[in-house]
Amino acid sequence: MATHLDLEEQEQLDQLKHFWNTYGTLITWAVLLVAGAFVAWNGWQYFQRNKAAQASALYDEVERSAQAGDTARLERALADMKAKFAGTAYAQQAGLLAARTLYDKGNAEASRGALAWVAENAVDPGYKVVAKLRLAGELLDAKSYDEALKQLSGEVPKEFEALVADRKGDIYLAQGKREEAKAEYQKAWSAFDTHTDYRRLVEIKLNAVGVDPKSLASQTGVASPAKNTP
């Protein structure tokens, strides 16, 4: 009986050796690939967390510089952010914050440069449109009307269509193009939610170019905002 079991075990052992000789290398490589992918994934996650932490720390430096009004330090921090973490949301936020501070400090050229960088490099479409709207506003102030309109050309996310139309209306009105301004204000008024406070500002602009918003409401079927009775 013992001899029979020994022979059976030897046969199983031989089969195992044959199997390993045939498939052992393939199995080893498969295990190594899985293990390598796991290690790489963990390494990538660590790298991303570390990168985010560094970008956050640098954004704090941008924020502190902005609060202190130290534009030289602010521009250095922003340059570091653009060089090292251009693809992060922190860089986009830093560009918008730096632009506001630089503009308030009277450095419109540097402000427009920061906004142009965000408009061109932002990964998030929301940040991209915000940068373009603000850049168009600064170009409007500088009377660079064609360049301002150029910033607002092309497709934009639906939630920004009303703001873009309103800004275009401002630019056309500054150029003395009342009909074009009127068309854009009408577009903005129709796109804004009826309960949005900004819509009331657009109504004032429409009145300024000779359009009664009530007539637009009757044409489009959109109810005009209810007036508070005294």
Descriptive notes:
The chain has 230 residues and is mainly alpha-helical. It contains 10 helices and no strands. Helix 2 packs antiparallel against helix 3 and helix 5 runs antiparallel to helix 6. The longest helix has 67 residues. The chain is elongated, with a radius of gyration of 31 Å. 27% of the residues are buried. The C terminus is likely disordered.
In brief:
The chain is mainly α and 230 residues long.
**Count of DSSP helices?**
10
Low-confidence stretches: 38-44, 222-230
Based on the structure, what is the oligomeric state of the protein chains? Answer: single chain
- Helix and strand run: HHHHHHHHHH
Helix content: over 70%
Our Rg estimate from Cα atoms comes to 31 Å
How far the N terminus sits from the C terminus, by CA atoms, comes to: 109 Å
Biggest β-sheet description: none
- Total strands: 0
Kindly estimate the percentage of residues that lie in beta strands according to DSSP: under 5%
Mean pLDDT over the residues:
82
Secondary structure class reads mainly alpha
Taken from the alpha-carbon principal axes, the silhouette is elongated
